[in-house]
Amino acid sequence: MVSEVVKDSKTIMLQMSLEESTSAIQKAIDTAKNVNQRINNNPRKQAALLDCVDLMDLSMDRVFDSKEALQNMTTSSVEDAHAWLSSVFTNHVTCLDGLEGSARTTMEPGLKDLISGARTSLAMLVAVSSLKTKVMIDEPLNGEFPTWVTSRDRTLLQALPKEIKANVVVAEDGSGKYKTVKEAVASAPNKGKTRYVIYVKKGKYKENVEVGKSKKNLMIVGDGMSSTIITGSLNFVDGTTTFNSATVGIHSPRYLVLEHSWATEAPSSGTSRRDDQSVINRCRIDAYQYTLYAHSNCRCVPKLQTSSPKAHEWTGQHDIIASPYLKLVKGSIRSYLGRSWKEYSRTVVMQSYIGDHIDPTRWSVWDKDFALETLYYREYNNKRPGASTSKRVKWSGYHVITSAEEAKRFIVAKLIQGGTWLKSSGVAYTGGL
Question: How far apart are CA 209 and CA 223, in angstroms?
Fold first, then answer.
């Protein structure tokens, strides 16, 4: 249900604020490029500045999308704008986090202003949307979905690889049009209006793949989790930033992945995601830290064998599996559900089976008491042998959820508005508790 909206001064102020932010973002892009030109023989600092350019470019797109969404202020448009403006905030913070030395000194004042502005825009959006919509309810799980989720997408995600008609084939033995996934992605149309399918035959592809933001409506299909494997080796030690170390980096929206694996041969992220409304189905990711580096702008449902999200994300019907070697040292090496990496982070583990290798305290600190007052960590209705909460951490930000009403805030229908787009993708999920 939606309502009519008559713009008032607060709504106009929000839109003006977003308009002004675009010039500030462009200034940050120009500054990063100029500083990058002055830095010599420091690949890591240069890489961090290039990350900032990419992040600011994404922020510019998300601000524009938010301005468009706020033209009508419906329930779905407000939810979209909130997700996009949250990603803008995260982009600015991530840019600043990656900088050091003279580059940070030069960039920091402008970035702090951008971070403050993004935070203010989010607060204004919450205030304006609360005032201007008479009815703000979650979309029902009624089978009505936006135009991007077509019946063909549902069929594709439910099909076996051999049943899918691909636009292009990748094969390491030369039997396809391309030998690398990177080449196939580059050949895909920009801003595609219909689903473009890349079929990757059985094999091990040693490469790092970047799916640019212009590669919309892309789908990559393999021959199975143990048959089609993309493996990369970029890592921080060699000068690559965490942000760009992913075996598969995804910037494009409406991205579908089916029946293959990503792996890393060095401590880096398995996949980095900055997209929206995407599905990872029947896949496996083997990696080290930040296995699934879901950076921002993410409302997705990965079904993986290992996941470590950093953004607005819901993961379900999947297994988080530690290395089998951990079993041999279970008594001497501690494992945790998570740690306090960022302030105001939210993590909820609910209705999950927790193994006995997880430390009874469950949660670890990042650096002394950093972020412990602002985090939101919750557990709800988990299963043994590691589900007991009697020895959990005593942080003010950690609590056990005892109310089903509170738990419902994190179901598919509410957290990622799954009812508006997910069901017709063909992925099995539970809409409620």
Answer: 18
Q: Strands (DSSP E) along 228-362, which ranges?
A: 228-232, 248-250, 256-258, 261-264, 271-273, 279-281, 284-286, 292-294, 301-302, 338-339, 346-350
Question: Cβ-count burial of 351 within 10 angstroms (0-12 exposed, 13-18 middle, 19+ buried)?
Answer: middle
Q: Tokens standing for 99?
A: 């900088």
Helix/strand/coil for 373: coil
pLDDT digits (tens, 9 = 90+) for 294-314: 444 343 333 333 444 444 454
d(CA 430, CA 407): 14
The rounded distance, in Å, linking the Cα atoms of 181 and 183 is 5
Residue type, 324: P
Tell me the C-alpha distance between 129 and 123, whole Å: 10
Torsion of CA 252, 257, 260, 264, to 10 degrees: 30
What pTM does this model have? 0.63
E strand intervals along 233-337: 248-250, 256-258, 261-264, 271-273, 279-281, 284-286, 292-294, 301-302
